[in-house]
Amino acid sequence: CRRGLGRPVACSVRANTTERRSEYQWRKPAGFDTGLLVYNSLSKRKEPLILAREGTATWYSCGPTVYDHAHLGHACSYVRFDILQRILKKIFGINIIHAMVITDIDDKIIKRASELNISPQVLTQLYEKEFMSDMTKLKVLPPTVYMRVTENIPQIIAFVQCIINNQHAYATPEGNVYFDVKSFGNRYGKLMNVQNLSGEPGETDKRDPRDFALWKAAKPHEPYWEAPWGKGRPGWHIECSTIASSVFGNHLDIHSGGVDLAFPHHENEIAQCEAHHQCEQGEILSSFRTQAQGMHKPVCFFVLVPG
Ligand SMILES: [Zn+2]
Predict the structure, then answer these.
(1) CB of 209 within 8 A of CB of 198?
(2) Closest Cα to residue 258, out of 296, 301, 305, 300?
(3) How far apart are CA 120 and CA 106, in angstroms?
(4) For 201-210, how does the pLDDT look when each residue is reduced to its tens digit (9 = 90+)?
(5) Which of 20, 66, 108, 133 falls 20 to 30 Å from 33 in CA-CA distance?
(6) In sequence order, which residues have a C-beta less than 8 Å from that of residue 3 and are 6 or more positions away?
(7) In sequence order, what are the beta bridge partners of 194?
(8) What is the DSSP string of 151-181?
């Protein structure tokens, strides 16, 4: 998710991407029309903001990966989302139920914790606390609920199993589980026009280079959870689809995240949700995808949020 603190460069898949213009036909969801127009990154134009329930918006945010200090890119994104939420609340009287995921297990966390010779848990607790403190200093209102990945592993395992059962994912003898992009046909890639994919180095057990990990087998000395496919941990994207679905069911009004994470992260979130819920234009993660610019751009040049 908003692979905070630097997630950006290490995309699990590299690709040349170009935005599609007006190619995807947005289908207006049923519900209460607020009369507001919001930029929809799926259709690439402004669309009416339609809520499932009058007066209440469900909102999911990709949150930080807590392994380092928050930088200006993060601050920018969350301040922007906060402004949008305040406008909806204070001017239009819309109650917002906002869930944000905290990524507290992933490759970068494991690597950083190992470099510092501390446990991933100690590292993530430190930076989670710092992130929340930074947001308070920036006067960004907290979400209704923060959800940590490590506290939702059974839900993630069940979500992955459901995608396997729906024949859109497969487990390998190595203990990895991949999303089967080919099985999804041209439904994959609706957010971004994706070409020339090459897999993550070292992944040799995929059926197709475009396939992406839902579950990663644990390497020696890495933290792991037991799953039907072996010991491992969630892949990069699955946490958001699972947690958004756990909190909001199969309909979400607004999804927000960094525009530079549109591919592969948000693209894969959409595919996972549609494969899980067996719907098109996922009734989840698709009503609106408000993306802030430049969330992850400062990769080498970090301006830290003042402490
Ligand atoms: Zn996300």
Answers:
(1) yes
(2) 296
(3) 9
(4) 667 899 998 8
(5) 20
(6) 62, 65, 103, 108, 236, 258, 261, 265, 296
(7) 17
(8) G-HHHHHHHHHHHHHTTSEEE-TTS-EEE-G
Ligand 1 centre and the CA of 203: distance in Å? Answer: 22
Residue 47's beta-bridge partner residues?
38
Q: Which of 9-13, 74-78, 96-100 has the lowest mean pLDDT?
A: 9-13
Alpha helices (runs of H) in 64-217, residue ranges in sequence order: 72-90, 107-116, 120-137, 153-165
Distance 252 CA to ligand 1 centre (A): 13
Q: What's the 89 CA to ligand 1 centre distance in angstroms?
A: 23
CB under 5 Å of ion ligand 1: residues: 1, 62, 240
CA distance 295 to 75: 8
- Pairing state of beta strands 56-61 and 254-258? parallel
Grade residue 295 by pLDDT with cuts at 50, 70 and 90: very low
State in Å: Cα 64 to ligand 1 middle. 9
Q: Provide the 8-state DSSP code for 304.
A: B
Ligand 1 centroid–CA 248 distance in Å is 15
Q: Provide the 3-class DSSP secondary structure of residue 145.
A: strand
Percent of the chain with pLDDT over 90: 57
Distance 143 CA to ligand 1 centre (A): 15
Q: Is the dihedral of CA 269, 274, 277, 282 positive or negative?
A: positive
